[in-house]
Amino acid sequence: MSDEQLAPVTGANFSDAQFAMLIAALTQNKSGFDRETLTEILTEAQKNSAGAMQKALHPENDAHPGKSAFAYPEGDVSHPRPALPYEMWWNGFPIHRAVETHHWSELELLVALKPGVYQVIRKDGALATVTVRATKDPAGKISRMDIEFPVTREERHYIAPMFVWLWQMSHPELSPRLSFMKAMQRYLEIQMLEDGTAVAG
Fold first, then answer.
1. What is the pLDDT of residues 1-45, one digit of tens each?
2. Domain coordinates of the chain in residue numbers?
3. DSSP class per residue in 146-175
4. Which of 42, 81, 161, 192 gives a 20 to 30 Å CA spacing to 103?
């Protein structure tokens, strides 16, 4: 199941108060976040939006060779995760050397990522600039993609999950705040689908 196959978030209009509540929940615990609290905030936001997010159906989750926390529900054997077409570096970390530790949803977004300069939202609500640079071989084909953003040791816990920033970069037509809220909805929706739960609506 790809990101495009998940129930779409249509007509969402998030208020300043809902955005502030989300940021407060994200910054309350530097080591992670309270999924129940975030779900409540985002669910209330979707109820108040023009179009409520449809409940996604939980697929059959039978045991299958190659199944892991990062694989598609069908497992890597039946439904292999996307292969990166070239070297990809996340602020100096070689993603292409550790593909097995990345979720299928992250890999789908990485494969579709295009060079450019993007504005994203950190977990504390501040704007961050992410630069995506492509290196080409003599034939003019991309051989390496560098995803770079400034961050200090003290600020590293404000970095949003990779999926959230990648989703924001894949939707540059949206404002950073709106794309951040929608990305968090997608992020939680995918986790709940795999946990066997559903987004309340």
1. 444 444 444 445 567 777 777 777 777 665 556 667 666 666 666
2. 3-195
3. EEE----GGGGGGPPPHHHHHHHHT-TTS-
4. 42
